[in-house]
Design goal:
Layout (H helix, E strand, L loop, with lengths): L1 H7 L7 H11 L4 H19 L1 H8 L16 H8 L33 H4 L3 H14 L8 H22 L12 H21 L6 H18 L8 H18 L3 E2 L6 E2 L4 H22 L18 E4 L28 E4 L21 H13 L7 E4 H10 L4 E4 L11 H9 L5 E3 L9 H14 L1 E2 L10 E3 L3
Parallel strand pairs: 5-6, 5-7
Antiparallel strand pairs: 1-2, 3-4, 7-9, 8-9
Helix pairs in contact: 1-3, 2-8, 7-9, 7-10, 8-9, 10-11, 10-12, 11-12
């Protein structure tokens, strides 16, 4: 978990409550020993997690790169304020705002068109499997590993569902963290339901009930996207009906000349096999769609199925959606406003737009501008300075050395006006492309920088470049 923290920061800690709680409940040994193990594991996790932060803090501020996501070059502000607290509407004057929970802040978020088609096809089977698994192992010893497994995955799922539903999720792929829990609960639950089915009695009917509920939920998800995989809904309906029919009929097949009924050794396994295909058909079809270049989302927001950028209030509980293209930087609202809404329309990614982070290669206009800059600026450290790393991405893809002003959000006060002026004076930077995002907490410094550029530099008037806000600061 400490190593995972280096990649996803505090989100990596989301599984710790599940691991710690279940170890405390089910691990062998006395309670004092289990508590000591958890404390020791926590210390190791914290030490490894904080290693990079400590190294940065021990480096003098004047000798380290600017820490993006903060307003004071602090890795603590970037990790714990910008990438955690600000997503829940809590911030300070040391971090750019990410925006509060907004439209995402509801438990219905996990069932919305934004999330459910990506990770939620097996929700109901996982829930039924969890209840059945805990009931099945209810009288087992405290150290029973099967029950511990069900508990661990349940806590894993619950912690993430609450976290995602109460904060702002910038990209759909964040919710992939719940996929292992859903898969484990659904798979383990299916085994428990099958064993109960074979034992007989009233519990036998939990399996066809669980399959019917899961397939019905899959049909509901599929019907939200009528022009995407239009064959999926009738396929789910046919497979679901067949599997439930086989599972219901199998116990009532008469064997020989006897006057009693026995579970059919052929119909029951056939019903189970058909049920597995039925519950996996939906997520499999959506997953396979990503091999088509028309689907799969963008480089910054990968996702299965039809995707389009929507503002707050469109489908999936996001008010007032305004379609956009992949690769375009989010609106200048200080919180990455646009959300990726699957199926909000059947707009296709079209192989991803070439602009910004969304592209897989720089477009012709970008390449033309980069070629022009290289012809007019030999030897400089930076070929160009632009607003924000989203805009810088397309020029980096074209092979240019670019200075993103304002960092990822466009709000960070870096470089300052004095630093930009020194780069120009030292011959390390000549051209500045204004525009893009620049509002928010760092807005005053960004406004001063813009004023300096427009007052000191000269607008490039070459109409063949396709840009109107390119400035030459060497003139």
């Amino acid at each position: 978990m400490g190593l995972a923290f280096q990649t996803k920061m505090v989100q990596a800690w989301g599984v710790l409550p599940a691991l710690a709680l279940v170890y405390l409940i089910a691990a062998p040994g006395r309670l004092r020993r289990r508590l000591a193990h958890i404390v020791l594991a926590g210390v190791v996790t914290l030490a490894v997690s904080m290693s990079w932060i400590v190294m940065v803090l021990l480096t003098p501020a004047s000798a380290r790169p600017y820490v993006d996501g903060s307003l004071d070059k602090s890795p603590l502000a970037m990790v714990f304020e910008y990438n955690l607290l600000s997503r829940y509407g809590v911030g300070s004057d040391t971090t750019p705002g990410f925006g509060g929970p907004g439209a995402d802040g509801a438990l219905s978020f996990m069932f919305s068109a934004l999330v459910a088609p990506q990770v939620g096809w097996l929700y109901l089977l996982a829930l039924i499997g969890l209840v059945a698994g805990l009931w099945w192992r209810g009288r087992a010893p405290r150290t029973d590993l099967v029950r511990a497994g069900f508990l661990m995955w349940a806590v894993w799922l619950a912690v993430h569902a609450v976290a995602f539903s109460t904060g702002r999720v910038a990209h759909t792929f964040y919710v992939i963290a719940v996929a292992p829990a859903i898969a484990a609960l659904a798979g383990g639950g299916l085994v428990v339901l099958w064993r109960a089915y074979r034992r007989g009695g009233w519990q036998r009917w939990l399996l066809p009930l669980g399959v019917a509920a899961t397939v019905a939920w899959g049909i509901e998800l599929s019907r939200q996207f009528p022009t995407f995989l239009p064959w999926l809904t009738p396929l789910l309906l046919a497979l679901g009906a067949l599997s439930v029919a086989l599972l219901v009929v199998a116990p009532f097949v008469r064997r020989g000349n006897r006057e009693h009924w026995r579970l059919s050794p052929r119909l029951a396994p056939a019903g189970l096999a058909t049920a597995v295909v039925a519950v996996l058909a939906g997520p499999s079809a959506w997953a396979v769609s990503t091999v088509d270049s028309q689907y799969g989302g963008s480089a910054i927001a990968p996702a299965a199925g039809p995707m389009t950028r929507m503002g707050a209030g469109g489908p999936g509980g996001m008010p007032g959606g305004v379609p956009g293209r992949f690769g375009e930087p989010p609106p200048n609202d200080g919180q990455f406003g646009g959300s990726q809404i699957p199926g909000a329309s059947d707009g296709r990614a079209g192989g991803q737009s070439p602009g910004g982070f969304g592209g897989v290669q720089a477009n012709a206009q970008t390449q033309q501008l980069v070629a022009w800059l290289r012809a007019h600026q030999p030897g400089s450290r930076y070929l160009l300075a632009v607003r924000g790393s989203s805009q810088a991405g397309q020029y980096i893809l074209a092979g240019a050395s670019v200075l993103p002003m304002g960092g990822f959000s466009g709000q960070v006060p870096f470089p300052t006006t004095d630093q930009l002026a020194k780069l120009v004076a030292d011959g390390q930077l000549r051209y500045v492309l204004l525009g893009g995002r620049g509002g928010g907490p760092g807005g005053e410094e960004n406004a001063n920088l813009t004023a300096w550029v427009t007052k000191t530099c000269t607008v490039v008037t070459d109409s063949t470049l396709g840009v109107s806000d390119l400035y030459d600061c060497a003139r």
